[in-house]
Task: structure prediction
Amino acid sequence: MKDWIFKRTTVAASMVCVLVGSTAEAQRPAPGELDALKKMMQEVLSQNEDLRRRVRELEEAVKRGQAPTGSATGVVGEAPKDPATPLAAEVPTEPVKTARDKIQLGGAIQVEAGTRRDFSRVTSSDLALSAAEFDFEADVVDWAKAELSLQWDSSTNNIVLNEALVTFAKPTLVPVYLRTGQGIVPFGTSIGTTVAARFEESLTITGPLTTEIFEAKEDFVLLGFRKYGFNAGAYLYNGTTDNRKRGKHLDHYGATVSYGMKTDLLSFDVGVDWNGSVFDTDGLTTAFPELQKRPRVSAGQGRSYTPGISTHGRLGMFGFSLLAEYDGAMNRVHFTRNRRDVSTMPEAWQVEFGYMTKIFGIRPYAAINYSATAGMLGAFPQRRLLGSVGSFLTDNIRLALEYANEKDYPRIQSGTGRDSDAWILQLTYEW
Result:
């Protein structure tokens, strides 16, 4: 292409010279005509230099794999362009994505080796596959996204549904979004049950007692608002607690509000969550089966659902991180267990301090987490202390070592009064 353009320009220049020469032989030009011919020759040479520059720019753009810029237009022999049409609209900067291209695949595999001594003084050790999951994410249209997570269940050796969510959002137009499906409702610091979500919540291998007790996976629909760092929403979910004799009704709901900010040096997030039936959380459902089916209370006192509240704060600065959380029931409940009257008000809180840095392309870290409970009647440990060190060898491979110490409730509160220890070495590969 370059040779063809130069040849055409040379021929044009030669024709001008021939015409000038023939005219000079026929008659001697006047001084004004000679100046005009010189000016014409200078314009031709200038156009030739401009053409060389534009061709070089075009070649460099092709080598870099970029679309030609506006300075590469106007090449001799090129079809004229419509000046009203931008070049970016004529030449796409990237291939048009099909529906298949907009489906992302991911997942994770975790292998653990550890030794444990439980509250019964029994010591054990094992090497096991602790997690295997496959994740899908589809954004076929720019105003909706679907997320699906399948997980291997070690107890049944089957593949089960972990999470399935659809989110409708167009933040460039409106700050309102709608999310529905099966997943973790916003209560506490837990944001999901996938391996990637666990990495976002905590640096430790074992989760804190707050998450273990007050995390709630439900079928829900949430209407939310997100703008300028504020995030608020109200949700309706299909809970398991029921106080009606004529069948189950969709009358469980909750709300959340938070504010967060993230820069290159500082990040923080604070929030408050409320749940109309705290005994719908996974841990409390298992610990207190007596509170799943309860009749209405006396007239004028409403339903017997017990609300719960959660507050949390998270701070990150210069590689250091600090997390604090409190979850608990808002009312004390009374029920009968083994023909005995029981009164309880479940609570849990945690504090985690961590540090992460980057050395020689890897990201080592260390973290200490302390969590405790009250009113759990021996269903969960009274406190848990975790110390973890590890490193992200790459962005998707993590190797971590953790020591865990737990203290059980005293015998008078349905516990053993003993403590337990565990050492865990975990390898995670995420893609």
